């Protein structure tokens, strides 16, 4: 461990640093007989070696005293070296101290000189300092005055802006007022140190903004009131445009239909060019939104645009709810146009606001308004439709509702709910329409004279016959022309045509794109439930005559033929090509029903004719069944029958088709034959003689001759040659022939029966023969013949009677 090392030793004095190099010298000193050991320890310390082992060894050997002695020696040696070094540098230190003392003297002199110069300077600069303080004070005053002037100018500018703002407000120029107010507010925060003025302005700014807000709300309220008044005209104008477009589309479709029906080749642009005039919607529907734009912008400048949006929406919703309320003081059929035009105008305005007002409304808000209106309007329509009792009124409302819907559909509003309401009222409308047409049909039937129509002019023929395709030939007849039908036919066809148009009008522009099948269904219902039922009621009424029944039967035939026209007309109005309705499944069920009604008319006609004939054919009362003489002119009843047959068969030949004439005539003659046979079989006739049979023979010849004449004069010999009218009298003829036969017993001969008596019933003949007395009952008749020889004919008749009894 080294106690002294070769280093630079620094000695410090005030102001002077002296650096002395100390060199360690190794000296060998041997003292007190231990010089060798002391020398070793000194060398170790001088060389900086570690003396730890030596110290440890001294203590281990128990000789620490020697070590201490050696250390003391080293200490003395080092003290001698230090003393020698100090002696060496002492002279240099003294010189340095002397130099420092000289510097101190110079410093004192310099200080004295400085104090003198300072005194002189103070004497000279006192006046200048006073002037400088005055100058600085002047500069301060000037600065303050400049600031005061600048502040005054700022205040004047702010006050001028305030005056300008007031002027703008008084003139209603609120946007300019707000801009000026913004400048005032900025100047107030930046350039107005005047606290009082600043406070006044800061207090007035919110008041002014609130005043502007109120003023703008007043203007908006006035605009809302004005636009509400104008909404009806706006809606009517828009709906009027929809009417024009619809009419133009109808004309184009009608033109297209005619072209397709005429099979014109090379249609090209002629068939499909749509001559549509492009009209800018905004240019047609002119209304001023400037106050609203201004209010919206000013509220935006006020930073309360969201508040204004809510204010506008709330008030418009209130207006809408008010518009949706209807008064009970005026019938709905008189106010519906105004009602829907008002709503249409409302949403047209809102659409313009949505598109142009810079976010004042959003699409969701308009949709909410629309849904609110739809809910109330559909409820109103359902209620009003349920109360309506007039088909024309319901149709008028429906048409206007569809126009309302098509108008607002252009503004992307969903109108499906309206169409659903109209569709749900379809049955109600058609029921009303059916009832109105039923009453018209009943009136037509009641006013019909049931005479064939006389058409005097070609124009009348076109209106009455050709317009309903009632002609049986393409050749124009000569005039005057007697039509086979009565006036009920064209009148009823007009009613049916109006019914078809009413049905098509209601179903048009509704939920169904192709509604021909629906129209056909209701047309069938009208023809079956109205026309056919009315015909049956007339046929089955007790106060109808034979000519009327014949005319009704003919009219029904014409109605059957008109069914095809009705179906074609419905297809045309529905825009369906006529060729597509030629399929069997497209026919009307009413056509078959009318055919059944025609059959009912013939049955009723036949029944009425037979009833009338039966009134004349009271043979049991009007015929003498046991006359003494014969009458070649026949009984009186047969002449009445002939007159009656002639009275209805002559017009029947003119009114009815040949088949119908044959059917009615054959039924009448067959009824006459049955009546003759029934008279012979009647319980009222207890007995009859040969003269009565001969008289019936004369009657039968008369009626047979009339039947033959009518049969061939009517032209039935060509179509019904196998069974003539005369053949319809076969039962009566065969019965009379049997009663007058010379060999009546041959009746049961199979060959003769098949040839001459096939129409007779054996049981009925047996009952009749029981009443037959071969000779007339005179006063002396029975006595004269009592013992006379029975004639061969009588014998044969008795044989037949016996055989018939045995047969039965």
Per-chain topology:
Elements (H helix, E strand, L loop, with lengths): L7 E6 L2 E6 L13 H13 L4 H9 L3 H107 L3 H17 L4 H67 L6 H5 L8 H4 L5 H13 L2 H19 L8 H25 L6 H25 L3 H19 L6 H9 L1 H22 L6 E2 L2 H7 L16 E2 L5 H20 L8 H25 L5 H29 L14 H28 L2 H4 L13 H20 L2 H24 L6 E2 H24 L2 H4 L10 H10 L10 H7 L5 H10 E2 L7 H6 L5 H16 L1
Parallel strand pairs: 5-6
Antiparallel strand pairs: 1-2, 3-4
Helix pairs in contact: 1-3, 3-4, 4-5, 5-8, 5-10, 5-12, 8-9, 9-11, 10-11, 10-12, 12-14, 14-16, 14-17, 16-17, 16-18, 17-18, 17-19, 18-19, 18-21, 19-22, 21-22, 22-23, 22-25, 23-25, 27-29
GO biological process, one term: vesicle tethering involved in exocytosis
Family: Belongs to the SEC15 family.
Pfam families: EXOC6_Sec15_N, Sec15_C
Sheet-strand content, in percent, reads under 5%
- The number of helices is 29
| Uncertain stretches of 5 or more adjacent residues | 1-34, 264-279, 777-790
Looking across the biggest beta sheet, what order are the strands in?
1-2
User: Tell me, what's the shape?
Assistant: elongated
The first-to-last residue Cα distance is 181 Å
- What structural class should be given to the helix and strand makeup? mainly alpha
Report the radius of gyration as a whole number of Å.
69 Å
Mean pLDDT: 84
Strand count, sense and closure of the main sheet? 2 strands, antiparallel
Estimated helix fraction: over 70%
DSSP strand tally: 6
Could you explain the architecture of this structure?
There is one protein chain. A hairpin with a 2-residue loop joins strand 1 (8-13) and strand 2. 27% of the residues are buried. The strands form three sheets. Strands 1-2 form a two-stranded antiparallel ribbon. It has helices at residues 35-47, 52-60, 64-170, 174-190, 195-261, 268-272, 281-284, 290-302, 305-323, 332-356, 363-387, 391-409, 416-424, 426-447, 458-464, 488-507, 516-540, 546-574, 589-616, 619-622, 636-655, 658-681, 690-713, 716-719, 730-739, 750-756, 762-771, 781-786, 792-807; strands at 8-13, 16-21, 454-455, 481-482, 688-689, 772-773. It has 808 residues and is an all-alpha fold. It is elongated, with a radius of gyration of 69 Å. It has 29 helices and six strands. Helix content is 73%, strand content 2%.
